[in-house]
Design brief:
Low-confidence stretches: 1-54, 99-107
Mean pLDDT: 78
Order of helices and strands: EEEEHEEEEEEEEEEEEEEEEHEHEEHE
Number of helices: 4
Largest sheet: 8 strands, mixed
Helix content: 10-25%
Number of strands: 24
Radius of gyration: 27 Å
Distance between the termini: 52 Å
Amino acid sequence: MKETTRRLARGIAAGAAAIAMVTSTATGALATTTPPTPSPKAPPARTQVPEELKAGVQKNWRPQPKPDQTQSCSTVKERATKASKTAGPKAGLISCADFITSPRDIKSNIAVGLDPDDGTDPLPAGCGALGSKIVSRVVDCQTGWVVYELWTRPKPEEPPKLVGTATVQVDSFDQLGWKAPHFNRTVKVKMTEATGLATTGLTATVNVRCSGSKCADDYASGGSFQQELLLGQPWTGFAQFNSSPIASDSKSDALFHFMTTSISLHHPLTDNPPYVSEHDSESIRCDKRLPTADPNTPNDAGGCVFHDFWPFYTLSKTTGTATKTAAHIERAQIATANHWGLYTGGAKDKALNRLADETLANKNRTEACKAAPNPRPTGMDCDEYPFAATYQGAALEGYGDSHWELIDFRDNRAEGAYRKNWYAENRMLDGDAFWVKIVP
């Protein structure tokens, strides 16, 4: 696999708001200046992103690299103890931590320079919880911790002693371009707690890489490429990549990528190899629509989304230009047996899936409105639900379970135009799932 490595030019994207992060399985021990009996220290439990931030539902999570047990504290200490019995005691300290590391097929790899954080926190509210959470089709949040430990080397009759710990928080904020085929990751590293000999000297090196079809590095931040971590001082780096999807009306031509952060921690009092941990972004899909014949519609430059996020298509019954259509959809969701597109969190919820085939969409429309007056009353349209341009339309999955009403044609067509733009902004391809949310 082609691998390119270059320095990234400093920058945090305006409005960048994504946290993607490493989930530490570590349970460490925090020590005093001369640690007595270590007490367990674990990262806080994962919490959910607040309801007001939810723009949809994440249906899948990308599997993270499995922990490398050869670097775990139990393995490192056991290995050092065995070595002391055969080769005798050795000077210096040993270090260990429990994090995620795994080899990857690399398409593009960038060394990220770390600069002092400028205080502009790109995290959206509520994204500071442990774990991964997609906030929208273009924003991903993750955060996590690693507990780094320094131990004395064991002697034949003396077990190792804990002489320092450092809790390092690593946040990654992923932002995708829905109007341009690029995506970026901001990495924020902060030592939140430190004790004993780990309060000074611990350095971090960060790389971000892109894997998948036809992704390449774009630019990245400068700054220190091996930064000593200071208690309470956050350091930030940035990397951007681009994709090269071809213009196509086929979903199979879309390209898929993911970003991986690799953070290496090392302390000068040890001769252990640097401790390396990795974490991946959620899966990214990039596509490019065919040129349009409409002179008033600009050609698509391509764009990228988190395709495992099923977004909410939201309409209001009281504001906007499609209030009557919104009210009809609410009635239709209640009246149909499958309550199409209504999200309750239950196992039987039925999402809608976009249908790009106009011929099938017309068949859905005809089937749904076959009982409506024809010709229609002046100024009225037959509004069908589920939408004709979905696989749940009346001639397909929704056969026998659809709903229609006569709606003011201006209101109905305003909704259609709004949904067309919403499809484009969310890069909804044929078969993509979504929910329909009606608000007051």
